[in-house]
Amino acid sequence: MDLESLKEIRITGLKVNYYYICKRKLWLFSKNLSFEKNNDKIILGQILHENYYKSEKERDILIQELISIDIVDDDYIREVKSSDKMEKADTMQVVYYLYVLKQLGIEKVGLINYPKQKKKKEVHLTKQLEQELLEALKDIEKIVNQPKPPKLEKLPYCKKCSYFEFCFA
Ligand code: SF4
C-alpha cells in the first residue's frame, strides 16, 4: 500500500495498534467515538511520555500527517509505552512507522521503551513483519469502511478499555 492510499484511508499508528488489540475498538476509534480523555491508562501514558523524553529535542515528529513518532535520532525511532501487556500491538505500530519511513526512503530501527518494566525492545522491518503489516493494512481498510462495528466479543482486557461502558452498558 503506498503513502497516498494510507493518507486517503487515514491509517494512523494508533489505528494499527488498536487493530491488534480489538477490531471493534479500531472501528469505534475510526468513527471518532473517543472516550480516551477519561481513561487512567491514557493519562498515565501521557505523563510518562512527557517526562521520559524531557531532554530530547526531536520529539513528537509528525510525518505525512499519518504517524507521530515520540523521538527520532540518528539510528532509531523511539516509542515509550506505559505497559508491556500489548507488546504485539506496540511492535506492529512501530513496524508501521518503519514502513512509512521506508516509503520516504528513510531506514531506521525501532526501539520501544517500557520504563515501568525497565524493558526495551528493538524492532526491525523484516520482510516477514512487512508482509504481516500489509495484510493488516488491507484488513484495517475493510474494517473502518464497514457501516457497523465488528461484533462484540468479550476480551480479557475489556474492563480496562476506554470503550467498556459503550460496549457493555
Ligand atoms: S470494551 Fe472490549 S470489545 Fe469493546 S472496544 Fe474495548 S476491547 Fe473491544
TrEMBL record:
Residues 12-168 form the DUF83 domain. The keyword Cell inner membrane does not apply. Mg(2+) or Mn(2+) required for ssDNA cleavage activity. InterPro entries: CRISPR-assoc_prot_Cas4, Dna2/Cas4_DUF83, PDDEXK-like_dom_sf. Its cofactor is iron-sulfur cluster; Mg(2+); Mn(2+). It is an enzyme of class 3 (hydrolase). This is CRISPR-associated exonuclease Cas4.
